[in-house]
Amino acid sequence: MIRKLLGRCAIGALLVSTLAAGAARAEYPDHPVTVVVAFAPGGMTDIVARLLSVDLGKRFNQTFIVENKPGAAGQLGTEFVARQKNDGYTLLVSATGHVIGPAVNDRVHYDPVKDFAPISILAKAPNLLVVNPALPVKTIPEFLAWGKSQQGIPYATAGFGGSTHLGGEWLKKITGLPMVHVPYKGAAPGTNAVVSGEVKVAIQDSMSVAAFIKSGQLRPIGVVSAQRSKLFPDLPTLAESGVTGLDVYTWLGLYAPAGTDPSIVEKLNKAVNEIMNSPEMVQRLAGQYSEPVGPMSPSQVTDYVAGEASKWKEVVKTTGVKVE
Q: Quick check: keyword GTP-binding in the entry (predicted)?
């Protein structure tokens, strides 16, 4: 009789434990979530992460804290998140360099797919070729003619191994222009360098340079992509001036460490899809010269990241960019 009672108690305790565990999972998030931005404040990655974090906080009635960890074109922040507990309380927002870094640097200590649980593709923006207004060029043909007369053309980007860097090296490969990469710890400091005249040329995502274009502190020359952007309908592509083959843009992804509970990934994915594609957010992004990619399931996001990783491996082979 005692054995039966003890057995029933054990079963009851197991059931209570199981139900409690299920309830705990259902309550996510029950304390603040850290959203690591792999770049310095002020650039596209940072702006979008902050907009999203505010709305996630409202959605879940919980604090989402943005923490910038810039360095090595996003590598430092990315590797930091990869090492964190996979409990959903440390997330990563990074840019296209997330899939490029391992291809250009053998010392990068993460796999863009295997080491993360991709949650969402947040937004995309065209990359633009911009110059300091003091530079005597206003069109792509003028830039190409001027560039061929230079011994070197220093150009600023958000850092080594990002899409803006690869865009410049791709341009160098196609045209023979003496492009010289000057990496910064994010789009904001790189853009400020061109505004101040420290560097005269930059390839940056449209969100990071739009305000300076509006104010006349930067002059856009062309879109570094295969087609014109509806965000800049009057700005020609480099392809329209004979520089064919370039198709470079910036996209942002939201990730959790690999092994994160699929129910947490699903919950975040659903919330982020609704937030990023809401009329209010679409309008806010348009005001910042970027746009949402559209709703994707976690499996679709994983496929997207894997496809981009494959694409950029080929670009790295074409340009020969590599950390020695």
A: no
Note the helical H segments in 91-162. 97-104, 140-148
N residues, the chain: 324
Dihedral sign for Cα 219, 221, 222, 224, please.
Answer: negative
Classify residue 74 by its DSSP letter: G
Q: How many domains does the chain have?
A: 2
Same domain? For 132 and 237 the reply is yes
Displacement of CA 322 from its chain's centroid (Å): 20
User: How many beta carbons lie within 10 A of that of residue 298, not counting itself?
Assistant: 17
Instruction: For residue 230, tell me if it sits in a domain.
Output: yes
**Per-residue pLDDT averaged across 27-51, rounded?**
93
pLDDT of 144-156, one tens digit each? Answer: 999 999 999 999 9
Domain range for 81 is 33-125+250-319
Domain membership flag for residue 190: yes
- Whether the pLDDT of residue 20 is over 80: the answer is no
Contact assessment for residue 214 and residue 236, using Cβ atoms and an 8 Å cutoff: no
pLDDT, mean over the chain: 89
154 and 102 within one domain: no
| Integer Cα distance of 60 and 132 in angstroms | 43
Residue 321 — very low, low, confident or very high, per pLDDT cuts 50/70/90?
A: confident
8 Å CB contact between 293 and 123: yes
- List pLDDT tens digits, range 204-235: 988 889 899 999 999 999 999 888 888 889 99
The whole-number pLDDT of residue 6 equals 47
Residue 5 lies in a domain: no
CATH classification at residue 163: 3.40.190.10
CA dihedral 303, 309, 311, 314 (to 10 degrees): -150
Query: Of 22-36, 41-55, 137-151, where does mean pLDDT reach its minimum?
Result: 22-36
Q: Are residues 152 and 107 in the same domain?
A: no
DSSP 18-42: HHHHHHHHHT--SS-EEEEESS-TT
